[in-house]
Amino acid sequence: xxxxxxxxxxxxxxxxxxxxxxxxxxxxxxxxxxxxxxxxxxxxxxxxxxxxxxxxxxxxxxxxxxxxxxxxxxxxxxxxxxxxxxxxxxxxxxxxxxxxxxxxxxxxxxxxxxxxxxxxxxxxxxxxxxxxxxxxxxxxxxxxxxxxxxxxxxxxxxxxxxxxxxxxxxxxxxxxxx
Length: 178
Prior knowledge:
This protein is mainly β.
């Protein structure tokens, strides 16, 4: 009798583990713009490494398996659609099941600067400028030459094509457009 109970217990433990590990993550983008057709691309990224790019359905819903999410690692979600330049949306991890994001995003403003949604600070946040002429600054730091689009506390995108889903702010601490 004990053998049957042990086998039954092991079966339920394995079933529970598989159920927890094999769940899907759902993300819903709610776009309040009338011009959007609902098809947006979400890029899932971990420390500058792109893990996946997934296109939403016409209702702004995307579902993907937790298999691409590793335990104890945070992943950033970016909106990367036609005419949208990698706008940061949120951070997820293996515990995430459902995220609903309203677009265009509204950010908290403190002393004239947006609060970075990742580090929640303002001291390294600068405004993004859209202009037809790209502005690039050559900096030499510790013998390394770096070309930067940052000039006089502005991040220059190098294009004048924009919409309200494109980033308006840049966090220098997190290298994040939001």
